[in-house]
Specification:
It contains 22 helices and 14 strands. It is an alpha/beta fold and about 550 residues long. The protein has four domains: about 80 residues, Arginyl tRNA synthetase N-terminal domain (Gyrase A, domain 2, 2-Layer Sandwich), CATH 3.30.1360; about 160 residues, HUPs (Rossmann fold, 3-Layer(aba) Sandwich), CATH 3.40.50.620; about 80 residues, no CATH class; about 120 residues, Isoleucyl-tRNA Synthetase, Domain 1. A hairpin with a 2-residue loop joins strand 12 and strand 13. Helix 8 packs across helix 9 and helix 20 runs antiparallel to helix 21. It starts with a helix and ends in an 8-residue tail after the last helix. About 40% of the residues are buried. The model has no long low-confidence stretch (mean pLDDT about 90). The protein binds one RNA strand of 77 nucleotides through helix 8, strand 8, strand 9, strand 14 and helix 18.
Length: about 550
RNA sequence: GCGCCCGUAGCUCAAUAGGAUAGAGCAUCAGCCUUCUAAGCUGAGGGUUAGUGGUUCGAAUCCACUCGGGCGUACCA
């Protein structure tokens, strides 16, 4: 529908030159009385033309040449809106596109040929993934899906660090538990990893080596074993959400390939860094940030900034047109440094899109549970998945804007999981499948010959909702907003359930019934395609 | 103190680049199953969009300040 108006406006612009100065944007009015699509173009031109918007609107409409078989009414309303009303048979005809494109309906090729990298999760292997990581994991994977949907070739990437302080503490923690299990008196420091899983890892070492490794250093077999087992656990958790990263990028690679040294040299050569108090500082204040920051500590060890910048340079080198970084709000102070560093070196930092999601507050019995991997005070993502299922977890995390702090009441989620909107969508899909199974016995089949019979309110609204899908997907992807897909699908499912209640298929006159089968099939296609973006199953029966 | 994010119905959240009368779900109340799945549908109540000012034809949306909450503010990541 929009395409039709846009091309009509374009040809009108040949006569009315001022139309070239604006973008053709059409909104779907909230009220049906305001038509199917509406434009505020005349109002935007008020100042420029020094004419009343209603006069301008009249001028535009008379220049449009609209086919009455497509748009049966174009009116001016309110302060100067132009409202367009499409004929029911034109709208119904759009069902054919959906059926034809089927599993690909809603995809676009706007970004075909472009490569994107989505970096998400990126938790260091110090413990199991928590519910907090769940939001990151689900949203990251869904954004990757969305980008694929609009034409990008997408690599999902996981960046991790198995060196550094956190991991040293991990090795120390395992070694201590190992000694404890062998019967030694130990004192377990409060800033070591407290979780049970540390003991389990230590136990696997005892099972395998007994006390033979008692003199090995903590950062040898102890750390290595912990890393290996924890990573296996993380990958298992992710795969139960159907998430699979293509690339695991180890920070170590940056050292091994001398990229850190090289970067340090470049900063020095370009006089972007200096030494002070035995440390190396990056001149971030010169690059528009608040203050200079240390990139190499006086101990000789780099801070995270240096490898992070080097890491992003590898992404540029690997040829990505778009690089998405998704992390929690606890990282919100780190990325400006990295971006400033990249910019200073001449990289096009706008290709890096940093997304910050707010934290998940877990409520239990009306109280917020503070989470810390170190303190072992957390609810694992595994626990959550086994309690409510992967579909609910994925839907739940996707349905909120990442900027909003979300409360997750565990007890409520368990209790009301059957009332979750995800079931509403799935039920819609299952209902359609059920009808389609049934029609064979009724001597009915899908037909697009008489779509013009679909004129009722319920039918028209369902069709209109269906054909919004492509634009919704594009919009969601460009804005990195997974929650828009959820909102859209809930509206679509509602439109279908209403149609289902009022428009019977079996028992209606044959031509009408077969047109309705076409419509129901189109609804099924879009429901399923939308759910596949979210990573939620579309069951055939419930 | 400073920086980023947030504040919308009792609760959880929407609101399609500033548009017309702010919408859903849950919860509450009243209805609808001898016909394709009632995990559904219809209807009702529920709002000074935290507050105050500003920008303009028009503000939940943009700007300023105030209040309240989250996360940061390291030679941790």
């Amino acid at each position: 529908m929009k395409e039709y108006l846009i091309s009509a406006f374009k040809s009108a612009a040949q006569k009315l030159d001022y139309l070239n100065s604006i973008e053709f944007v059409f909104d779907i009015p909230k009220l049906e009385a305001h038509g199917d699509l509406s434009s505020n173009a005349a109002m935007l031109l008020t100042k420029k033309l020094r004419k009343s918007p209603r006069t301008t609107a009249e001028e535009i409409i008379s220049a449009l040449h609209l086919d009455p078989a497509v748009v049966y009414k174009a009116e001016i309303a309110g302060p100067g809106f132009m409202n367009f009303f499409f004929t029911p048979s034109y709208i119904a005809g759009k069902i054919k596109d959906v059926l034809q494109e089927s599993v690909n309906y809603g995809r676009s090729n706007k970004y075909a040929g472009k490569k994107a990298n989505v970096e998400f999760v990126s938790a260091n292997p110090t413990g199991p993934l928590t519910v907090g990581h769940g939001r990151n994991a689900v949203v990251g994977d869904t954004i990757a899906n969305l980008l694929e949907w609009i034409g990008y070739e997408v690599d999902r990437e996981y960046y991790f660090n198995n060196a550094g302080r956190q991991m040293r503490v991990l090795g120390d923690s395992v070694k201590l538990r190992y000694l404890e299990l062998l019967g030694h008196e130990i004192e377990f420091p409060s800033d070591y990893y407290q979780g049970e899983y540390i003991k389990e890892i230590a136990q696997t070492l005892i099972d395998e080596f007994g006390d033979k490794i008692i003199d090995d250093p903590p950062d040898g077999i102890f750390k290595e074993r912990a890393e290996k087992l924890i990573f296996q656990d993380i990958e298992k958790t992710l795969s139960s959400l159907n998430i699979k990263h293509k690339i695991f990028y180890n920070e170590n690679t940056l050292y091994e390939e001398k990229k850190i040294d090289l970067l340090l040299d470049i900063f020095k050569q370009r006089e972007l860094s200096y030494e002070k108090d035995g440390a190396v500082w990056l001149k971030l204040s010169m690059l528009g940030n608040q203050q200079d920051k240390v990139i190499v500590k006086s101990t000789g060890e780099p801070t995270y900034r240096l490898p992070d910048i080097a890491y992003h340079i590898t992404k540029f080198d690997r040829g990505y047109d778009l690089m998405v970084d998704l992390f929690g709000s606890d990282h919100n102070a780190t990325y400006p440094d990295v971006l400033a560093g990249l910019k200073a070196l001449g990289y096009d930092a706008v290709r890096v899109k940093v997304l910050i999601h707010q934290f998940v507050t877990i409520m239990e019995n009306g109280e917020a549970v503070k989470m810390s991997t170190r303190k072992a005070n957390y609810i694992t993502l595994d626990q959550l998945i086994s309690e409510v299922g992967s579909d609910v977890v994925r839907y739940f995390f996707n349905m909120r804007n990442i900027a909003s702090h979300m409360n997750f009441d565990l007890s409520l989620a368990k209790k009301h999981s059957e009332e979750n909107p995800v079931f509403y969508l799935q039920y819609g899909h299952a209902r359609i499948c059920s009808i389609l199974r049934m029609i064979e016995g009724e001597n009915l089949k899908l037909s697009v010959d008489d779509l013009h019979l679909l004129t009722s309110d319920e039918e028209q609204q369902l069709i209109k909702k269906i054909i919004q899908f492509k634009e919704e997907a594009l919009f969601s992807a460009e804005g990195f907003e997974t929650n828009r897909i959820c909102t859209y699908l809930e509206e679509l499912a509602a439109a279908f359930h209403r149609f289902y209640t009022f428009c019977r298929i079996i028992g209606s006159e044959k031509k009408l019934a077969e047109a309705r089968i076409a419509l129901a099939t189109a609804a099924k296609i879009v429901l399923k395609n939308g759910m596949s973006i979210l990573g939620v199953h579309a069951p055939e029966r419930m």
